[in-house]
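If you are new to this repository, start here. Below is one unmodified record pulled from the training split, so you can see the exact layout before writing a loader.
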Amino acid sequence: MTVRPPSSIPEIVADRACRLGSGPVWHPASKLLYWIDARAGTLYSFDPAAAKSAQVTLGDKVIQIVPFEDGGLLLFTASGELKVYRPHESPKTISRLPWDPRAHIDAAVSDGRGKVYCAMREAGSRSGSLYRVGADGKAEHVVAGIGCVYGLAFDEDIGSLYCCDAVSREILRLTHHADSGAVSGRQMVLQVPGSLGIPRGLAVDSKGFLWVPVWGGSCALRVSPDGREERRVYFTAKLLSGIAFGGTDLRDLYVVSSGAEDRRTNGPGAGALFRLRQGVKGAPTAPAH
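And here is the target side for that same chain:
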């Protein structure tokens, strides 16, 4: 592994003092970066054009978000409901999801073809399942035994679905059959060393490389499709907890962090939203519809 000097230093662009920053997504229609504080269930947005962040008032505790093609968001809520939020409107319920509301939705991603995949884990369990959710809100079980998956990401041709398991610290590649929506196979790409930390988040760039923020390691890794660590970028926050490409050219890399309640231990940037450019473009975001 070659540690390369970054082409830009991570800068804090919004400090919302998150206790558990999670699920950052770039919305190509609204040109906003959204993320949540999963501990509080609060949704935030960042407008790079105005260089301002804002809290989005919903009246619901949000646990995961996926961009919706018309400028809105698909919301997984703590009440177990699936909702659609559009700016300046109250969220509208699509359905109640078929599992116990106490279940954890650790990650969610759209395939851009009308299906959303989410990692669901029953309360108290260290192993979850992958579900596929349609536009009607109906959920279909896809794969069992995937651990605590805090990151899901498709490659550019949606032929591979990557996930990171916080329990085994493994980055896994699953084969995605786009026509049927089925998922098969399971191949380990990389296991993050326990001495470094826990993978918590995932993004794919246009070259097929994976970007993985490390909880406890103060760094994000760039990993080749064959599992080689190609780059390591350090941050002023110890607990990195989510990552997404954004910006109009998809060359901005956004990283969220956690632990703002104890910045002496977790770093001066704990709980903030960071942005940097590393000379690579992200794979396009696929909104739900």
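Two things worth knowing about this chain: The domain at 11-276 is CATH 2.120.10.30 (Neuraminidase). Residues 1-6 have pLDDT under 50 and may be disordered.
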